[in-house]
Design a protein that fits this description.
The complex is a heterodimer of chains A (about 110) and B (about 110). Chain A is mainly β and about 110 residues long. Chain A is about 0% helix and about 50% strand. In chain A, strands 2, 4, 5, 6, 9, 10 and 11 form a 7-stranded mixed sheet that branches. A 4-stranded antiparallel sheet of chain A has the order 1-3-8-7, with no helix packed on it. In chain A, a hairpin with a 2-residue loop joins β5 and β6. In chain B, the strands form 2 sheets. In chain B, strands 2, 4, 5, 9, 10 and 11 form a 6-stranded mixed sheet that branches. A 5-stranded antiparallel sheet of chain B has the order 1-3-8-7-6, with no helix packed on it. Chain B is globular. Classes of the chains: A mainly beta (about 110), B mainly beta (about 110).
């Protein structure tokens, strides 16, 4: 039981490049979400999904796309990276009836 | 939108008690959480409290909830250097089950 797995752990991009942060969970959780963490700002919700085929915007969705084609996977896409997207990204999941989120270990992204 | 606020820093001496405070605005809050983040690591759930409770104790941790004032606190008894970390308060916002986080309080424990 691996929990929530995020890849890559570290990534450096140039402005304008695109990339996908991967998130996978093996707990059959319906709810998955992406947060970004910036110093002094806590964690802010980017996008979330309450089940396969359903996604919705969080607090700071601009510049990011998501899709949820399977229950297990919830990738976060940056189509044209900007320096303002330099951050640590966390994926989290929970089952529909639960009240506790399980977090991945994080992905540190630097955009030059 | 809903908001969660924390002070950014707290410094205590080893062996003292630490009290980390949090305020929130969500009137329909159901659960409130405390997470711990050590340097370079992910978030570890410490404890949580259901909104119809006033207090919850778990070993060295005591959570107090004042629902009228929308104030949550985390007390760590006999604070150790290993408790040095960033502590996040979070509110399970009822609509969509979203977790709203505070800015985090950096706890520094001096020997």
């Amino acid at each position: 039981n691996a929990g929530v797995t995020q890849t890559p752990k570290f990534q450096v991009l140039k402005t304008g490049q695109s990339m996908t942060l991967q998130c996978a969970q093996d707990m059959n959780h319906e709810y998955m979400s992406w947060y970004r963490q910036d110093p002094g700002m806590g964690l802010r919700l980017i996008h979330y999904s309450v089940g396969a085929g359903i996604t919705d915007q969080g607090e700071v969705p601009n510049g990011y796309n998501v899709s949820r084609s399977t229950t297990e996977d919830f990738p976060l896409r940056l189509l044209s990276a900007a320096p303002s997207q330099t951050s640590v990204y966390f994926c989290a999941s929970r089952s529909a009836g639960a009240n506790v989120l399980t977090f991945g270990a994080g992905s540190r992204l630097t955009v030059l | 939108g809903e908001d969660v606020e924390q002070s950014l820093f707290l410094s205590v001496r080893e062996g003292d008690s630490s009290v980390i405070n949090c305020t929130y605005t969500d009137s329909s809050s159901t659960y409130l959480y405390w997470y711990k983040q050590e340097p370079g690591a992910g978030l570890q759930l410490l404890t949580y409290i259901f909104s119809n409770m006033d207090m919850k104790q778990d070993q060295r941790l005591t959570v107090l909830l004042n629902k009228k004032d929308k104030h949550l606190s985390l007390r760590i008894a006999d604070t150790q250097t290993g408790d040095s970390a960033i502590y996040f308060c979070a509110d399970l916002y009822n609509q969509g089950g979203k977790l709203i986080f505070g800015q985090g309080t950096e706890l520094s424990v001096k020997p």
